Amino acid sequence: MQNERSDPIPTDNWLKITTEFGHLFKGVVGALPALTEYCEHLDRKRRHGAANCQLWLCA
After folding, report:
1. Cα gap 35→28, rounded to integer Å
2. Is residue 2 part of a domain?
3. What is the Cα 53 distance to its own chain's centre?
4. pTM for this structure?
5. Which domain holds residue 42?
6. Residues 1-49: pLDDT tens digits?
C-alpha cells in the first residue's frame, strides 16, 4: 500500500502519541483509508478506533 499522507502529524500530537501510545490506541492504528481497507478485508462492519486515529494522526 502506498503512503497517502501528505501532511505531517502536528508536533503536539506527535509528542502525545509517542509518550502515551498504549493509552490512546487500543486496536489497529493508521490513516482512515488504510483502516477502511483493513476492516473490509476482515469483513468488519465498523472501523473501531477510527475517531481516535483521525483525532491524533490528522492535522
Report:
1. 7
2. no
3. 3
4. 0.69
5. 11-57
6. 455 556 788 899 999 999 999 999 999 999 899 999 999 999 999 998 9
The count of structural domains within the chain is 1
51 domain residue, yes or no: yes
Helix, strand or coil for residue 4?
coil
Residue by residue, DSSP assigns 12-51 as HHHHHHHHHHHHH-SS--S-HHHHHHHHHHTT-SS-TTHH
What single letter denotes the amino acid at residue 35? L
Q: In angstroms, what CA-CA distances link 34 with 15, 20, 26, 44, 56?
A: 23, 22, 16, 13, 15
Note whether 21 and 13 are within 8 A (CB): no
Domain-located, residue 49: yes
